[in-house]
Amino acid sequence: MVIVLASNNKHKIVELESFMKKLVPNVEIKSLKDIGFTDEIVEDGNTFEENSFIKASTIAKLGYIAVADDSGLMVDALNGAPGVYSARYAGEPSNDRNNNEKLLNDIKDVPEEKRTAKFVSVVTCVFPDGKVVSARGECPGRMLFEYRGNGGFGYDPLFYYEPLNKTFAELTPEEKNSISHRARAIAAFSGKFAEEINK
Fold it and tell me: Which of 88, 127, 138, 150 is the least buried, fewest Cβ under 10 Å from its Cβ?
C-alpha cells in the first residue's frame, strides 16, 4: 500500500511517517516531492478540518490514498489565534522565530494563569474513490514568557506541558509522540482507518 502524505514539512512527515508505519507495517510512505507534486495547495479553510481535507483531497484526485494533517496553536487569551494561521502568523517570510516573537509580543501583558493554550491536529485521509476518514487531537498547555528547549519546531519552545514539566521543545521524540496533539489525532484516526481498509 502506498500512502502519500500531503506535506512538504519535513518535521511533520517524519512524525506522521513513524505513526503510519506502526499502523500499516507494509506501507510505503511518499511525500509530495516523491510524487513530483510541486503545485501550491491553497489552504483557505476556516478550520483545521477544512484545511486538512483540502490538502488530502487534492492529492487523492491524482489517484493516491492521501493523508494530510493540519495543525496549529490556539491561545485562549487571543480568542484561539493563531489557529489555522499558525504557520504564517507573523506574515511572510514565514518562519518559526518570527511567529514566536509575534506571539510573545501579543501576549506579553497576559498573566501566567491566563496563558492557557492548546495544540490541535486534524488528520484526514481521502481515498481515490472519495471516502474520507478524519480525526482530531488536542493537547492542552500554557504559553511561557521565554523560550525553553532546543528540540521540536514551531511554537514548541514556548508551549509548556504541565504533566511532564517540560516544554514541547524539551521532550524527547518518544515523549512527544506519546502525548502530542498529532499523536492523539493519529490514535483516534488509526481505528477508523484500520476499519476502512479492512472492509
Answer: 150
Q: Rg of the chain over CA atoms, in angstroms?
A: 17
Phi, psi of 148 (to 5 degrees): -140, 125
CB-based contact 157:100 (threshold 8 Å): yes
Residue 8 has pLDDT above 90, yes or no: no
Provide mean pLDDT across the span 82-100: 93
pTM of the model: 0.90
44 half-sphere exposure, CB direction, 13 A CA radius: 3
Q: How many residues does the chain have?
A: 199
> DSSP per residue over 73-110, as a string?
EEEGGGTT-BGGGGGGTT-SSP-HHHHHHHHHHHTTTS
Cell of 3: 500512502
**Cβ 187 vs Cβ 127: under 8 Å:** no
Matching residue, cell 506502526 = 22
Lowest mean pLDDT among 11-25, 100-114, 173-187: 11-25
Angle of helix 181-197 versus helix 10-23 axis, rounded to 10: 40
Residues with catalytic annotation? Answer: 70
pLDDT band at 119 (very low <50, low <70, confident <90, very high): very high
Going from the C-alpha of 116 to that of each of 27, 79, 89, 113, 183, the distances in angstroms are 38, 11, 18, 7, 20
